[in-house]
Amino acid sequence: MLNSIAILGRPNVGKSSLFNKLTKTRNAIVSDYSGLTKDRNFGYLSIKDHRYLIIDTGGIGSEVNEFTEAITKQAIIAAEDSNLLLLVIDASEELTLDDINLLQVIRKMNKNFFVVLNKIDIKKQSNAKHDLMQKGISDIIEISAEHSRGLKELQIQIAKQFDHLAEEYDENNGTKIAVIGRPNAGKSTFINQFTKQNRLIVSNIPGTTIDSIHVPFSFNEEDFIFIDTAGIRKKFKQSQAVEYFSYVRAMHSVDESDIVLMLIDASNGVVDQDLRILNLVRSYGKPVIVALNKIDELSKTEVHQLTETKKFQNSALSNLHVIKISALHKNGFKILFRTLLRVNKLAKTNFSTGRLNKLLKKFISSINLPTISGRQIKMRYVHFGGIHPTKLIIHSNFSSKIPLNFKQYLINSFRNELNLKSIELKISFKKGDNPYDGKKNKLTSRQIKKKKRLVKYTKKNK
């Protein structure tokens, strides 16, 4: 079992900054806004040859809002599941009642913990350290997460707490699935139901999820990581900074994922924003599967009407697997996950040159090849060029000005024959290099002498 460390504290004391520094990522949003972190977020800390699971939690405080109870519950669950707790306190402010109450809660858990005094770089310092020592706290580590001060000492103390007998876990072994969609499409509900954990806060209020949350899980003895992302709103670029940054984090999650699951709220139908998000996601070249969520809220007639709409039949959806599910009632999960596994495996397949050339020969033999400037296109051979997107490189006598309709014909033909539904396919043309271009034949010594005699003879006769 991997040793785990939970970071606790009241809002805006620098927990997410510390999480990012320890994991050497930007997986947690950092901002002056208070209370951005709501769900537990996972990351990995490496110290020498050992790895530890780091859990970032939401701020626990007395300020009451619609998420207070859920945030506190998530943080307590993280603390109970961890081997070591880090209580982060703002060194620039006096101890608050929230700090003291949280300290008492941690003490009752009977777990190893450190108090981490953050923001020591701020000139205005409080009596927080003195007050903590008065309360019998001796394990105090002073840091500045923003400026990386004291982090080495913190890592040394963390390493001392463990016997390093834990089984190592390689995050890279997990297939990453980014879950994308509009706000309130049911992304968090889906992940909670699928992983059989209440890992993510679920609310009817759109925009509950702000950060991109990584949720590891296993299925059929294989490791996976769901990435729950913030819902992408219309006109996100004109929205407040937090919302725009949430969009940036969502796109970063798409970029780092192996496959993308796009959730669409079936009760609202396919709307323009769904198609915009889909086009944004497909530009990253990752395989995409669409899940029509909340299908249980529609009758058979309404489902049929939905599939007959112009937006549902849009070209953005035409080459994708569309699976009907109900996250709330766990309907359609088996067929969805089988499709995810099959498409992800196919998206990483390296197709042989022999197979590709047989298909290319078949495709061009059934049509009249187009011409460019009076010259007919000649295709010599094709080979595999890479994944995400799946790329095929065709060597021909032209590398540009290829007619779009001919290029699309080849894409559709290869997609159908290779069963590349939901997989982005890109075909590029490469013109063969002339091996003699820019090169001159070297004359032998005998030829050089002959050339000199010929030049001399020509001049003499003139």
Describe this structure in words.
- About 9% of the residues have low confidence.
- This protein has three domains: 157 residues, P-loop containing nucleotide triphosphate hydrolases (Rossmann fold), CATH 3.40.50.300; 177 residues, P-loop containing nucleotide triphosphate hydrolases (Rossmann fold); 113 residues, K homology (KH) domain (GMP Synthetase, Chain A, domain 3, 2-Layer Sandwich), CATH 3.30.300.
- The longest helix is centred in the C-terminal third of the chain and has 17 residues.
- Strands 2-3-1-4-5-6 form a six-stranded mixed beta sheet, with helices on both faces.
- Helix 12 packs across helix 13.
- It has 462 residues and is of the alpha/beta class.
Layout of strands and helices, then pairs:
Blueprint: E1 4-8, H1 15-23, E2 41-47, E3 50-56, H2 68-80, E4 84-90, H3 97-108, E5 112-118, H4 128-134, E6 140-142, H5 151-160, E7 175-181, H6 187-195, E8 213-219, E9 222-228, H7 241-256, E10 259-265, H8 272-282, E11 288-293, H9 300-307, H10 315-318, E12 321-324, H11 333-347, H12 353-365, E13 371-372, E14 375-376, E15 379-386, E16 390-396, H13 404-418, E17 425-431, H14 445-461
Parallel strand pairs: 1-3, 1-4, 4-5, 5-6, 7-9, 7-10, 10-11, 11-12, 16-17
Antiparallel strand pairs: 2-3, 8-9, 13-14, 15-16
Helix pairs in contact: 12-13
